[in-house]
Amino acid sequence: MNHSQMRVFARRSAMQAVYQWQLTGYDLAEIERQFVEEHGLGHGDPAYFSELLHEIPKKLDSIDAAIGEFTDRSINSIDPVERAVLRIGSYELLYRIDLPYRVILNECINLTKIFGAVHGHKYVNGILDRIAHKTRSVEISASSKKPG
Known about the structure:
The protein has eight helices and no strands. It has helices at residues 3-24, 28-39, 46-58, 60-68, 80-95, 101-115, 120-135, 137-145. Helix 4 (60-68) packs across helix 5 and helix 5 packs parallel to helix 7.
């Protein structure tokens, strides 16, 4: 498994763990222990999984504010799967500048297609694309000027 596949696995596991945290409010360390022991994060990137699981709740106010700016409903009324994916994507767009925005959007769309409602990926894409245009405008401008 190459590094990007490991990152995909970690992001997928983190989405499931954030989803669990949102619904249960369980202790993050307990959720992490469960995922490591029961879901075998050895195939992924455990450090990245841990970063997402612990940093998203720490930065929840700024993440939810970024999402809330582009949605027509309260964050808690968004489908829990889509909310978990939006929080991961928003965290990555805001705090992981080393990750290309197109990779973030693509991965989040794929996660929503796998776990979310039938057309949920369109909703997630629309919100994350707006957040990307606001927070990554320089990166987006540079990528659109490359000869293609």
